[in-house]
Amino acid sequence: MDRYASIIGTGSYLPETVLTNFDLEKMVDTSDEWIRQRTGIVERRIAEDDIATSDLSVQAARLAIKKAQIDPLEIEMILVATVTPDTFFPSTACYVQKGIGAKKASAMDISAACAGFLYGLDLANGLIISGQYDTILVVGGEVFNKIVDWNDRNTCVLFGDGAGAAVVQSTEEPKGILASYIGSDGDYAADISLLGIPAGGSRMPVTSEAIDQNLNKIQMNGREVFKLGVRLMPEAAERALQKANVSVDDVDLLIPHQANLRIIEAVGQRLGVPREKVYVNVDKYGNTSAATVIIALDEAIQDGRAKPGDLILLVTFGAGLTWGSTLLRL
Ligand code: COA
């Protein structure tokens, strides 16, 4: 019997506090008009100071577990994709395990930046179809506000906080993950100013000098990252379609990484997916990094844009560089 890995429940959680473009006008030299025109972002959610990534992730995971109608003790593995872990170690996944009471699971984090959730799905898919595991919780969660330089208008307008989760379970029905593809190119890691945080790891521990230069905060070359996203996401999406031998015309909903509306629209155009089949929520949440595609999938299921039987194409890219795509039959 063939085995497939199916998403049987999703959940998402966004902090209540809304930070609008008008709020940002009071913090840095920017304008609502500039942010909307260049990014499509109108507002984003910001977690309170005492909230960490696992807090948002636990809320999202509980909702996903409820939808999946499983007992947390059925979960055999927890994968949390994040670049804003609660601590370097223990992993955020261990805090999530405690928060949801999944005592029988193994738990670990995935570091693949904005592509992290699809890396997690790829791993879950492989472990399930090989017969090693039956039920895996995959989470994407971020509290980006803690790693953003709130004086840098080039980056602070782009990001937001949030988490999403999916329960992935084995099935013999030919549905769920039909194809998955992930890739990376570490050549791009050499230039950390492209996208990354220089200080805080073993290469450059956080010192007062590093803090003075904001090297413990996100650095980015927006124009370069923009070009890479527009090229890499369509290429990644094509790979999943080819693997499954499916035409892009059969896709019911395309969910690209929610970084910038102009990137999202360019990806849709390059793939030949009409605008009405492209899911967008970047206007409400900004870029929540590893959480964007799973928050969007959960919302699409909740608002009826993604229905049982639909063919959904998820695609993402991020620092590393990393990228990935997943073709799902819901
Ligand atoms: N408000 C007002 N002006 C701003 C600004 C802001 N928040 N941020 C930057 N600017 C200025 C720049 O300083 C620049 O001024 P200059 O020409 O005087 O130097 C000008 O706006 C234009 O900058 P440019 O880089 O050409 O803008 P852009 O059209 O490329 O848009 C981004 C900038 C960051 C919105 C865009 O490049 C982007 O979204 N890139 C991808 C980022 C991303 O997705 N990162 C995460 C990937 S996972």
Write the layout of secondary structure elements.
Layout: E1 4-13, E2 18-20, H1 21-25, H2 32-39, E3 43-45, H3 53-68, E4 77-81, H4 92-100, E5 106-110, H5 116-129, E6 135-142, H6 153-156, E7 162-171, E8 176-184, E9 195-196, H7 208-212, E10 219-220, H8 222-244, E11 253-256, H9 261-271, H10 282-285, H11 292-302, E12 311-318, E13 322-329
Parallel strand pairs: 4-5, 4-6, 11-12
Antiparallel strand pairs: 1-7, 2-3, 6-7, 8-13, 9-10, 12-13
Helix pairs in contact: 3-4, 8-9
How is this structure best described in words?
It is a single chain. The strands form 4 sheets. Strands 1-7-6-4-5 form a 5-stranded mixed β-sheet, with helices on both faces. A 4-stranded mixed β-sheet has the order 8-13-12-11, with helices on both faces. A two-stranded antiparallel sheet has the order 2-3. The model has no long low-confidence stretch (mean pLDDT 97). The chain is globular. It has helices at 21-25, 32-39, 53-68, 92-100, 116-129, 153-156, 208-212, 222-244, 261-271, 282-285, 292-302, and strands at residues 4-13, 18-20, 43-45, 77-81, 106-110, 135-142, 162-171, 176-184, 195-196, 219-220, 253-256, 311-318, 322-329. The protein contains 11 helices and 13 strands. By secondary structure, it is α/β, with parallel strands linked by helices. Helix 8 (222-244) runs parallel beside helix 9. Bound molecules: coenzyme A. Coenzyme A binds at residues 30, 34-35, 38-39, 114, 153-154, 157, 220, 222-223, 225-226, 229, 259-260, 287, 318. Residues 30, 34-35, 38-39, 114, 153-154, 157, 220, 222-223, 225-226, 229, 259-260, 287, 318 line the site of coenzyme A (COA).
